[in-house]
Amino acid sequence: MRRTGIKIGRVFGIPIFVHLSWFLIFAYFTYSLVHEYGSRYPQWSTRQLLSLGLLTSMLFFGSVLFHELSHSAVARHYRIPVASITLFFFGGIASITRDPDSAGQEFLIAAAGPVSSYVLAGGFWLLGRATPDGSMPNALATWLAGTNALLATFNLLPGFPLDGGRIFRSIIWGITKNYSRSTRIAARIGQAIAYGMMALGAYWAFVAHSSGNGFWFILLGWFLLTAARQSYAQVATQGALRGLRAADVMTSEMPTVGRDLSLEEYAHEASRTGRRAHLVVSDGRLIGLMRIEALQAVPRQDWPSTSVQAAMISREQLPWTAPEEPVLSVLERMRSANIDQLAVITGDSVVGLVTRDSILRVVQARSELGHVTGN
Ligand SMILES: [Zn+2]
Question: Among the three residues 210, 241, 272, which one is the final residue of a domain in this structure?
């Protein structure tokens, strides 16, 4: 879900994405605001109601962005890069590229969001106090004060991956010094909260006949459940890979091809053996890496007349790792560079290849053998 969205711009160099669901929710918010204002202030014209509804929704989503930027600012303060911010149907997500180094850092990064929302709520409340009752700015400020306070409070629920869950995890992490176990506990509570919200939503929708609130809660609960499961799976992966180095997961049988091979012949070779990557050698010397993905960049009719050397990644540009690099950091590099394999190099020779598949196989094997234990 994280990567599906439309980029709307950058703030402090962080790309801001808007998830497609956001447009639906924006329309829904505006519609219900117009409806709500209309029943409370029947003296306002349709045009006034519409513009106030639009402005309020925009300021609300601005508030969500401010919340996410606050997390990002604290993360950056600790030199943790923020890859992107995505606005979702009920809030946002700041994609922080790595886990914080300490429980204290995590606590402050997580707390920054709800604190900023409470600050906004306070600001709008003051604006409401300063404007006359029944005026348009007053209606807007009152609604935004309440909604920002609600947003902060909802985010403080102690289940992962909500801010409250992160705060909760950082506290257990600080006490037990056990990062994975803290995440597991917080993710379990997150799942319990998600099921609770869905049950409450179902009750409202089908028993109390408040279907609007009910379906909203079911949707939120479902989203939380998915997110909690994902973060749990991520921790399981980290647990399985802890202590392993590139040399432990690499494949050392390295198929090679000559640089003069045509792409036509290469395609045959790859489909015959099922291998997706080959080292390209010349006089026994490594000159690059050829991958079947590179075939797609060359038009089919040019394959017989194009050599592997023309399509390969050259030795200088080859992403590589040392055998002693921890697998977790290898995986992180593969994710952020969006690549599927790294050559393992010692001195001047390639000793193996680490692929996402080879890492995944280790995770699966270790999970089946019960290596994902209490740490
Ligand atoms: Zn937050």
Answer: 241
**Is 68 annotated in the active site?**
yes
Catalytic one of 36, 68, 316, 332 = 68
Query: What is the 8-class DSSP label of residue 3?
Result: T
For residue 106, report the distance from its CA to the centre of ligand 1, in Å. 12
Q: What is the pLDDT of residues 275-318, one digit of tens each?
A: 888 888 887 777 888 888 888 888 989 999 999 998 898 887 87
| Cα(163) to centroid(ligand 1), Å | 5
> Of 89, 32, 26, which is closest to residue 219 (Cα–Cα)?
89
DSSP 136-180: HHHHHHHHHHHHHHHHHHHHTSSSTTSHHHHHHHHHHHHHH--HH
167 plus 293 within the same structural domain: no
Task: Decide which of 200, 219, 241 is a domain's last residue.
Answer: 241
> How close is the Cα of 131 to the center of ligand 1, in Å?
30
Are 217 and 89 members of one domain?
A: yes
204, 172: one domain: yes
Per residue in 78-113, pLDDT (tens digit) is: 888 787 788 876 667 777 767 778 889 989 999 999
Q: Are residues 236 and 255 in the same domain?
A: no
- What pTM was computed for the model? 0.68
- Domain count of the fold of the chain: 2
Secondary element (H or E) of residue 353: strand 349-355
Is residue 305 within 8 A of residue 298, CB to CB? The reply is no
Kindly give the distance from the C-alpha atom of residue 242 to the centroid of ligand 1, in angstroms, as a whole number: 28
Residue 10 pairs with which residues in a beta bridge?
A: 15
Q: Are residues 250 and 236 in the same domain?
A: no
Do the Cβ atoms of 116 and 102 come closer than 8 Å?
no
What is the full DSSP assignment across 4-20? -SEEEEEETTEEEEE-H
Distance between Cα 61 and ligand 1 center (Å): 13
Rounded (10°) CA dihedral 93, 114, 33, 59: -70
How many whole angstroms separate alpha carbon 2 and alpha carbon 24? 17
Q: CA-based Rg of the chain, rounded to a whole angstrom?
A: 26
